[in-house]
Amino acid sequence: MIIHEDFSLKNYNTFHFDVKSKYFAAPESSDQLADLLQNNIAKNEKILVLGGGSNILFTKDFDGLVIKPIIDNIKIIDSNDSTAWVEAGAGVEWDAFVAWAVDQNYAGVENLSLIPGNVGACPVQNIGAYGTEVKDIITHVNGVFLDSGESFSLKNKDCNFSYRNSIFKQELKDKTIITSVCFKLNKKHTFMLHYGDVKDMVDRLGGASLSNIRNAIISIRESKLPDHTIYGNVGSFFKNPVVSKSIANKIKDEYADAPVYDISETHSKLAAGWMIDQCHWKGKSLKNAAVHENQALVLINKTGKATGEEVLNLAAEIEDSVYKKFDVKIEKEVNVI
Known about the structure:
- The protein is built from 9 helices and 20 strands.
- The chain is α+β, with helices and mostly antiparallel strands.
- It folds into 3 domains: 4-67, Uridine Diphospho-n-acetylenolpyruvylglucosamine Reductase, domain 2 (2-Layer Sandwich), CATH 3.30.43.10; 74-186, Uridine Diphospho-n-acetylenolpyruvylglucosamine Reductase, domain 3, CATH 3.30.465; 232-336, Uridine Diphospho-n-acetylenolpyruvylglucosamine Reductase, domain 1 (Alpha-Beta Complex).
- It is globular and about 60 Å long.
- It catalyses: UDP-N-acetyl-alpha-D-muramate + NADP(+) = UDP-N-acetyl-3-O-(1-carboxyvinyl)-alpha-D-glucosamine + NADPH + H(+).
C-alpha cells in the first residue's frame, strides 16, 4: 500500500491545524494493516493512530508514521427476536453508524447521535452523551498489537471501561490499533429521555421513537456546538469532573443552581461547562483561540489561524480559573500531540 511522505494533516484534524506527519498510510482492511506493520517504516518510526481527528490537539508536526484505518464495513453477526449483534469497521464514521442503526430500527446508540469521530475511537474514549455510554452496548473490541502485528479480541469486561476511560487509554495506550468494534443492539426499545432537554424536544417532534430521539439530540447539539468546518474544534475539550459527594455538596451549598449528578454512593459528577461559565470564560479569546459563545466546554480555532499551543495555553488558563474558584481540577478530554 502507499506510504505518503511529508503528509499534510490539515484535513485530518477537526481543529484544522496545518501540521504534517513524516509518513502517512490509510489501510483499508485488516490484511493491509498487517502488511503495513511489517514494513520497515512501521518498525522503525513512532506510530500515531488517527481516527476522525476529532479528539486530538496537534501542537507540532508528527515525526513518525500516522496510520489512519479506513476499514468501513458494517455487518450483522447474529440476530434473534430481541437483539442484533453488529460489527462495524474502525473507519466507519460514528454518526453514520448511529444513522444506520436507527434506520434498521435497532436501539442503543440513538442518544449518541452527532458525536464526531470514527467507530474505532469510540471504545478508547468510552464516548457518552445524554445518559448513554458506549460501554453499555459494546461486546468486543478487535484489533492488532503494534509491536507484534498479532490480532486480539477483547471482551467488554476486559476493556476496563469507566467514565471517558478504558484500557486503551491506560495499559494499552499507544500499543494497539482497533480494527472493528462489536455491538449488542436492541430490537425491543427502551428509551433514555431523562437527560437535559431531550424529553421536551422529543415530545415536540411527536413522541418517543428512535428517529425522533436522534433528531432531537441532533437539534440540541447543533444549537450548542459549532460546526468544525466553520470554527475548528474537537467538541467537548474537558471532561466533567468526578468528585466526592462532600465536595459536590459544598459546591451545591454555595451555588444552588450547580448541576450535580450522583454516580455512586460516594461520588458525583459536576458540569465542567457550568464551572467554566461561572469563571466568565464563555466567548472570550486568547490570541487566535477562543471559548465558544454558546458552550463553555468547547474551545475553537476562532480565526482559522490558531496554533495548538495557543489552544493549549487557553486551556491552561481555564483550568487554573476553575481550580481557584472551585478547588476542583478539570482534565482535558483531548489527546495532546
